[in-house]
Amino acid sequence: MPRGERSEEAWLWYTVVYEAIQEIPYGKVTSYGHIARLVGKPERPRQVGVCLKHLAAPSTDRTKKSATYNSSNVPWQRVINARGGIPPRGPHGASRHAAVLRAEGVEVSEGSMGELTVDLSKYGWFPEMLPSETGQVESSDGEDEEAAEDEAAYHA
DNA sequence: AATATGACCAAGA
DNA sequence: CTCTTGGCCATAT
């Protein structure tokens, strides 16, 4: 991260996000919001996107830490938006993204406006949490980021 | 320092 | 179904 690598807190955010993403099974996809929930920050899906954006540049890493995670060891292609759409981050970005997903066996179709989409009910990966149905929340205690961090590193 | 943006999301209208 | 609104906060200008 550009800003002084001294900020452990910022590094921590990137770390938990990357590790959560690495848990997405091959051939499945999930959303930014789900990753945000996994790391205990359900209200910051946007910041997850920031992480991946920086991930796109593997070199230019001055700190050894930033070299830990790069576009080749983090399956960024398995993270799409909540509607199953592939975010058009560039002119040919979406198509390239779709190609990578198809290579994993994920079916990518075309939306109404030529937007590439994935069928979440088929390829979506949302581990045992459907708030809309059960309305149950796992950690209803006062735990926050710390707990989430543990949980994220747990599964690895 | 202050303002604008963005690989987003959920809920309303 | 589409469009708007409010919220988030690390980066970029």
TrEMBL record:
GO BP annotations of the record are: DNA repair
The record ties this protein, via CDD domains, to: ATase (cd06445)
Q: Which domain of life is it from?
A: Eukaryota
Q: Does the keyword Ubl conjugation apply?
A: no
A single GO molecular-function term is: catalytic activity
Q: Which InterPro entries match?
A: ATL_DNA_repair, MethylDNA_cys_MeTrfase_DNA-bd, MethylDNA_cys_MeTrfase_DNAb, WH-like_DNA-bd_sf
* Keyword DNA damage attached: yes
- Which residues does the UniProt record annotate as the domain Methylated-DNA-[protein]-cysteine S-methyltransferase DNA binding? 15-106
The UniProt keyword set, sorted, is: DNA damage
Residue ranges under compositional bias (Acidic residues)? 140-156
- Please list where the region (Disordered) is annotated: 129-156
Q: What is the protein name for this chain?
A: Methylated-DNA-[protein]-cysteine S-methyltransferase DNA binding domain-containing protein
